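Q: Can someone sanity-check these two? First one:
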Amino acid sequence: MDKSRHLRKAYIVLFVVTLIFIFGISVKTPWKSIPPPRENLDTCPFQISDQTITPLNNTKHLLVSAFMDQRVKGFDIRIISIFRRDSIQTLYCLFCCAGQLSNTTPATVLVHSDHFSFPFGATDVMCQIPPKCEATHVTLLTHPNDVKSLNPNWVPIRNKKTEKKENNKFQFDFTVCISNLFGDYNNVLQFAQTLEMYRLLGVDRVVIYNTSCGPELNRLLKSYSDEGFVEMVPWPINKHLKPSRGWHVTEHGGDLHYYGQLTTLNECVYRSMNRSRYVLLNDIDEIIMPYQHDNLKSLMDMLQKQHPKTGVFLIENHIFPKKHFEPSRRFNLPQWKKVPGINILEHIYREDPQRNIYHPHKMIVQPRMVEQTSVHEVLKNFGERYKVPLDVCRIVHVRVALQGHLKMEQLNIDKRLWDFNEKLISNVDKVLKKVGILGSEQQM
């Protein structure tokens, strides 16, 4: 009897303990399903790329940056990329929605028409965000339901919110996009003169994609970057591909045209989409120069008033051969003798373009009216295009002669840069002295 009573007690105790254990588990379950703290909801909990060039796993392709872009019907996101043109497979867009994975949506791959026959080319990948997704990051998959094994890198989505100031004003009026620096480029004097000339013309920001540059130029760039005038974007394309130094694949070889120039120009257009009224697309040795106005704002106010539906303004390129010097050498300044690079004030002789053959332009664009751009023209845009007359604006391009057979007397004299010489010289001296390239004894 006592034995059976003890057994019953033992069973009761065991039953109660079991209930407590089960109850304990049951009260913890709701706690596990509580969403993460509010401050973490907008952070994708996966591997987020902090690089400007991100390899796409399980492919030969590279991702650069993602932007909200709802101008093309049926799409929300444009991913600026570099794709191997002969290896394009079916891809799927996957989003991080305030910390939660979305369903995948099909990706549309648009290789730009200008690729100059190189194996890799600038590419847009277009995605649609699923309903009820507050997308913060995006990635691409080669299989729609294989996130874990692919372990993708996530790219932040930019331009989600407008960056306009109050009263519908943009953060910047004018941004210059410099597509590439490479090959330890160290043309310090021309670089400083060009940037200071743009500052005099009213440019607010210069975006530069830097693969490599010389030590003196690196110091100059850091100074401009520290003050906020230059935005440096690292561009280590040589770590991922064999970039070409030229235009022609048969002549220069390589995987990608001119260190990815087409990709960087497009990236800069989208980077500037919500923050700059106008974008100038040109090289560092080119100055888009107004000839009837003292600054770019006055020029564009006039052009936009005359051509209100225009979003792309084509500016003709004019070569000033660096081998011909102004005879008096009045701007052969002693303080600049040891500064590496070309002194653009000494070159006033301008070639007439050969208009019977293709002659390139560079551009001033409203970025919101551009979908895809090449170097000398836009590939897709939403407004009209206009070639600006030569007497209104042209490019001052000091470089190797394009028509090397022409003698000095066959060239035009163009002293437009001299209209700015006093302020330009003073400003260049200040910036070179600031970075230690120009010492006080050199200015005496």
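And here is the second, same format, sequence then tokens:
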Amino acid sequence: MERFEFNYPAAKPLAGRAEAGVVGSGDLEALYEPDTANTLKIIVTTSVDGSHTLWQNFFNRLNALRELPAGHLDINDFGATPGVARLRIEQVFEEAEHAN
């Protein structure tokens, strides 16, 4: 298991907390919690050794494609493909945006 931390400049926080996905064979869990800081702090815990550069490139690309929300994003990965990772992260952001 490896653990990485990334920080990106961020816009306003989303409305509430959210969770998407389930850690399991080939999947990923994303948990978002809003914060008033102008940063999105990302913690990735993964079963895939040596994947720091892949995750960094993934988040650099996501940051270039969309405005990231302020807060904390915890990723628990069990070998998810980049497509599944993007889906789970978009799901957790959408759910948090509409939270009450």
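A (reply): Looked at the second one. Residues 5 and 43 are 5 Å apart (CA to CA). The radius of gyration is 12 Å.
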